[in-house]
Amino acid sequence: MSRLVALHTGGSREPWQSLGLIFENDTCSLADVDLVVSDQAPGLFHWVISGDRDEIVNIDGISTQLVSAANTRSSDSLIGTQRMTHLDHVVVNTDNLDRTCAAIDAALGAEMRREREVGNGVVQRFHKLENTIIEVVTGPHITTEGASLWGMVVSVDDLFELADQVGDQVMSPPKRATQPGRYISTVRGSVGLGVPFALMTPHVSGMSTH
Questions:
Q1: Which InterPro entries match (predicted)?
Q2: pLDDT (0 to 100) of residue 208
Q3: Residue 72 sits in which domain range?
Q4: CATH for 84
């Protein structure tokens, strides 16, 4: 099964460091996934995924590096004092679900597992990788042709403690998430990450997830 190895984003390291993430050169860890921050326009623009071959491909507009071998990172990375248990999901925006989901399946061998209608014309589909979920979203708010990496969500041991530590000017107060038994908090745009970034409580045993 394909595994997400790294996400590349433009912008500055300082806003990420203000959340308590620790960098080595231009790279920090989001659980077992590298986040590489480079001096480009803010926003996610590339990902690295391990699978069965080495190749640079374009997944419906998303720059993608496929690698046949990648070191498995420990998931014991910290944000502030809290352990990130895993990268919960990566959000991909698209103007055409069928086209983008077919491209993901063809490139990564990751079939679409489920579809969810959110309302107001917004629809989500989910693809499972070894260590995370790709959430593909479409709706009237998406007018650009093709697919693009949009944002990501990580799970942390104690979301409420982290929210208390950084304050509500940095993170929104935790609220109930769509998944039963879980809570979510969003890092505010004023922090300057340049990428939609949220944090969640861990999966609840026995509850359905994506």
A1: Glyas_Bleomycin-R_OHBP_Dase
A2: 45
A3: 3-200
A4: 3.10.180.10
